């Protein structure tokens, strides 16, 4: 099994604060990983480093075999547009562009603009009839679906989603998670940052951060775990010497975090 | 759709779907473009107006003959007057008047009489104050000094005598011409008045007029005979013209019994380079004429225009700086409001250069729209000002308008450099930083 992402003892340090503390993690191609933890646990900082938008203070990030610390700003931008699709909690759509134009922006920076393909992406997320509406004319769920369509338009190998359902109601949360499920089935690697237990439970694998330190890891899909271990994959680990840290090669289980108001039943409807 | 098409789609969306922001930027450019274009138009109109105003104070160029004929003064013949006028007209607008000077006697006192075309002189010298009418057949226009000396009034009668001997050895025609008007020519300051000149002429005439009869000297100095004219008007200029008697060319020819060329042609030339015109006339030696600029008029004109233009330049510079600050502040505000969008674009893989180009072109667009509207408004304003202040309308200057629009776009782009430069350094992580 090829490892798409390899984190080797990465840390992000702001003064005395260790936002991410000595984390090692490998993510194979096609895995759906959830990074969970409470607010301020370093999830987004970790995601920024994976997404080439921030650099670690220590350690190394390897994406598709390339060490990101060896790349300059232009090359990092190339990695972002060629390998990564981003989904944000606050959608971040360009307010003066229509839904289809927002999708086409990603094409524009990636390669060649194709309106037909952009409309197909919107159709895939169920928004073809809203393609020519401005973000202000769309609901939160619709905007997030546009964001997903924008993330998948260039067929990235890795989708990074930061709290993708954080601003959505149950119905729209289900739509978005169904979309992720489809993408996962098509072999796209998905890394979701969330503190929503339900969203995390949809992933094959979960790791938990607490104040920047890895404190747990669990698999929701045993077959995926077996395949991972058979390919030589090891549990995530941290070199941080704090109580409760997952330091060795044995995963420490954990209970799903705080927000679990929405039930799994609602997703299987 | 091509990427270029998408580029412009994003551009037009940013401009036309974010109207309130776009309007702010356009208005900032518009105000600058309107003010600068208005100033520039007035800057062009003022010298033209000044030229015309200064032309009303008489000639700025005089032409005199360089050679005398066998009888002492043949002057410039009508064909040469026409040819010289064509040369002046070829360089710009022109108005001219020709003068033939003769020494005459009134009540035995010497005076200078000028043969003129009244219409030409009237058209050239707007500053002459004439009480009564301009000369016509049998009627003369006399200077204020002549009228006062003779106690004459409009409608009165004056007897003018002509003696060929008075005009036999007059001074050189060029001196005579220079003294005929209030012309202060370059290279020589000639404040000779007609009366002074007449006096000199009279002296020589007196000498030549003395004849020996029976061993005694006989003189016609007290001879008061002559032709009677009616005084049609009295001219008051405050200058040497006040000592001259003006009659029609035909009357002067009748009085003298000879027809000859003129002694001086005065021009009000509208050319921008008067010295070049003078040189070109003087270079034609075969014409046997000498051209001289009237420095009193041209230097005043140039000095006032230079002062006004300097003032306009300073004001324009201030307006330009204010426009830069205004547009820069507006663009800076627009860019800062779009920080998240810029971060997002960078997160999507946009390079700093790509984002910079998008914002610079957008700024140029604001400048273009503001420039077009501002130029139109500036022209309207300049037109209104010129009509209200100078009582003249101005034509639309397409080159200046194109320059104004280009400058407005350029200023908008330059003003946007600092904020856009800061924007392109935005860390895309800011977009994802909020947890």
UniProtKB/TrEMBL annotation, chain B:
Which residue windows are transmembrane per the record? Answer: 311-335, 366-390, 396-417
**Origin superkingdom:** Bacteria
Broad class of where this protein is predominantly found: membrane
Locate the ABC3 transporter permease C-terminal domain: which residues?
314-428
Its membrane topology is listed as: Multi-pass membrane protein
Q: Which Pfam families match?
A: FtsX (PF02687)
What InterPro entries does the record tag this protein with? Answer: ABC3_permease_C, Macrolide_Exporter_MacB
| Region (Disordered), start-end ranges | 165-223
Q: Which portions of the chain have biased composition (kind: Low complexity)?
A: 189-213
The record's subcellular location field reads: Cell membrane
**What cellular-component terms does GO give this entry?**
plasma membrane
- Family under the similarity heading: Belongs to the ABC-4 integral membrane protein family.
* Protein name listed in UniProt: ABC transporter permease
Taxonomic path:
Bacteria, Bacillati, Actinomycetota, Actinomycetes, Bifidobacteriales
């Amino acid at each position: 099994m090829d490892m798409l992402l390899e984190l080797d003892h990465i840390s992000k340090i702001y003064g005395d604060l260790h936002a991410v503390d000595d984390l090692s993690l490998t993510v194979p191609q096609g895995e759906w990983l959830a990074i969970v933890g409470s607010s301020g646990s370093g999830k987004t900082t970790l995601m920024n480093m994976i997404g080439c938008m921030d650099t670690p203070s220590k350690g190394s990030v390897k994406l598709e075999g390339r060490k990101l610390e060896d790349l300059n700003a232009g090359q990092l931008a190339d990695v972002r547009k060629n390998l990564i699709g981003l989904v944000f909690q606050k959608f971040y759509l360009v307010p003066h562009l229509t839904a289809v134009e927002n999708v086409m922006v990603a094409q524009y920076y990636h390669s060649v603009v194709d309106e037909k393909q952009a409309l197909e992406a919107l159709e895939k997320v169920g928004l073809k009839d809203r393609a020519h509406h401005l973000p202000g004319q769309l609901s939160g769920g619709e905007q997030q679906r546009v964001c997903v369509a924008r993330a998948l338009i260039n067929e990235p190998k890795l989708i990074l989603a930061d709290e993708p359902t954080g601003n959505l109601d149950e119905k729209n949360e289900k739509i978005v998670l169904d979309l992720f499920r489809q993408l996962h089935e098509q072999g796209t690697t998905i890394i979701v940052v969330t503190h929503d237990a339900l969203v995390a439970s949809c992933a094959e694998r979960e790791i938990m951060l607490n104040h920047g330190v890895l404190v747990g890891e669990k698999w929701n899909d045993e077959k995926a775990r077996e395949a991972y271990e058979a390919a030589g994959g090891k549990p995530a680990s941290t070199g941080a010497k704090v109580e409760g840290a997952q330091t060795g090669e044995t995963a420490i289980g954990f209970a799903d975090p705080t927000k679990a108001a929405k039930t799994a039943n609602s997703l299987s409807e | 759709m091509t990427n270029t098409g998408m580029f412009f789609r994003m551009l037009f969306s940013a401009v036309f779907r974010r109207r309130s922001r776009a309007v702010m930027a356009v208005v900032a450019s518009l105000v600058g473009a309107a003010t600068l274009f208005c100033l520039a138009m007035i800057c062009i109109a003022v010298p033209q107006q000044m030229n015309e105003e200064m032309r009303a104070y008489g000639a700025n160029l005089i032409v005199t003959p360089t050679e005398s004929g066998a009888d002492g003064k043949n002057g410039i013949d009508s064909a040469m007057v026409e040819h010289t006028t064509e040369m002046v007209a070829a360089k710009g607008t022109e108005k001219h008047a020709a003068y033939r000077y003769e020494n005459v006697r009134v009540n035995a006192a010497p005076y200078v009489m000028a043969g003129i075309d009244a219409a030409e002189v009237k058209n050239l010298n707007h500053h002459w104050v004439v009480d009564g009418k301009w000369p016509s057949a049998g009627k003369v226009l006399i200077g204020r000094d002549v009228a006062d000396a003779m106690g004459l009034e409009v409608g009165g009668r004056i007897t003018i005598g002509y003696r060929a001997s008075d005009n036999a050895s007059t001074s050189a025609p060029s001196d005579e011409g220079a003294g005929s008007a209030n012309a202060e020519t370059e290279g020589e300051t000639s404040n000779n008045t007609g009366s002074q000149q007449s006096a000199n002429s009279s002296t020589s005439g007196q000498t030549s007029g003395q004849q020996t009869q029976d061993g005694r000297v006989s003189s016609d100095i007290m001879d008061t005979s002559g032709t009677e004219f009616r005084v049609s008007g009295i001219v008051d200029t405050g200058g040497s013209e006040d000592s001259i008697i003006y009659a029609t060319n035909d009357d002067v020819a009748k009085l003298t019994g000879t027809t000859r060329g003129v002694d001086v042609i005065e021009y009000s030339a509208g050319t921008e380079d008067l010295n070049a015109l003078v040189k070109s006339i003087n270079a034609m030696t075969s014409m046997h004429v000498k051209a001289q600029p009237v420095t009193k008029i041209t230097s005043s004109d140039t000095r006032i225009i230079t002062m006004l233009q300097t003032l306009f330049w300073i004001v324009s510079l201030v307006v330009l700086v204010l426009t830069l600050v205004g547009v820069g502040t507006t663009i800076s505000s627009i860019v800062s409001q779009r920080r998240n969008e810029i971060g997002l674009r960078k997160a999507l893989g946009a390079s700093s250069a790509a984002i910079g180009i998008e914002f610079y072109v957008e700024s140029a667009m604001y400048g273009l729209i503001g420039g077009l509207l501002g130029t139109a408004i500036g022209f309207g304003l300049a037109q209104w000002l010129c009509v209200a202040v100078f009582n003249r309308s101005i034509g639309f200057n397409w080159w200046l308008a194109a320059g104004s629009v280009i400058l407005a776009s350029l200023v908008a782009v330059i003003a946007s450099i600092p904020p856009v430069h800061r924007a392109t350094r935005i860390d895309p992580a800011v977009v994802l930083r909020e947890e």
